[in-house]
Amino acid sequence: MRFGEFFESFKHLLEESPRETLGPDSRLVFMSDLHLGDGGAKDDLAPNRGIVHNALAKWYLKQGHTLVLNGDIEDLSKFRYREIRDAWRGLYGLFDEFADGGRLRRILGNHDLALLARDDYPYEFFHGLSFDWKGRTLFAFHGHQASRFFMEFDYLSEFIVRYLAKPLSIRNTSVSGDSRRRYRTERRIYRASRRLGIVSIAGHTHRPLFESLSKYDSLRWSIEELLRAWPGAGEEEKAKIEESVAVYKSEIGRLRKREKDLRLSESLYGEGSLLVPTLFNSGCATGRHGMTAIEIGDGAISLVQWTGAKGPRDYVNRESVEHVVIPGTPFARHVLRKTSLDEVFARIDLLGPVVKHGALA
Q: pTM to 2 decimals?
């Protein structure tokens, strides 16, 4: 399918999604890709059970956040719904607390699409949600709609009839373990969001993104900022800069090995030399070093990582602009990136494309 066809489908999904208004006091947390299972060895979330539970119970619930579950919460491609409910009673109890306060939003992903065929799921769900910030749009959707398999079908009609009205043998192909497919999916969402001048908040690829920048991009810019500070630094500060650069270089080397043979720079999305901050991704809750999420609060948007007893990687401690530990626990919240929503949309306007006859100029 060509991009133009996806773009029309994306616009339709956006237009049909419910819309809510954000105010200066609004607080939201976007979490995706929990992949809840039966609690056993094949349950992807089991190792991070404590991180997720404590983050929700002792931070987001108490801080007054609305919880936006952005797809692939239950992994119905591998486990039965009842097995999942039985294994995660405590977590569903927390979901209930958010829902009872009107603070739960549930978006479907490809691994939990089978919920469409159930009538006993306790929460209302959507295919996408739009949030209005001073007349501008933030669009939350899982992101699988940009994968080639889902693009072959009219998402809200033919696909559902073909794969859900019949016995539930959903072909849940995953992009999270395929770097090239991840980037192609992200590129489609980035291009569509840029053309429309909106912010998209996705999941699906399991790759955290902030202002359309990957971890690789963020580390590279951090190194460049340190190098600019080097000439005017004192000897003690130079030692700290040298140490930080070494840590960032080591992490970049690790990423290069994992993502070998791929273009990792800003040219990845093929839309010019400047990336426009239209694409954010909450990552996933099943990471080996914790859970990532996107937060909105006090008129700002943030990328956060929650870690447990293993602690964060060295670069996370150095990159964090905020850091808090839940008292009496090993669970910590690290704010990796944070910027105001007004600045994000100002940059979209200043850096974004001129649209001529429906195409990017």
A: 0.82
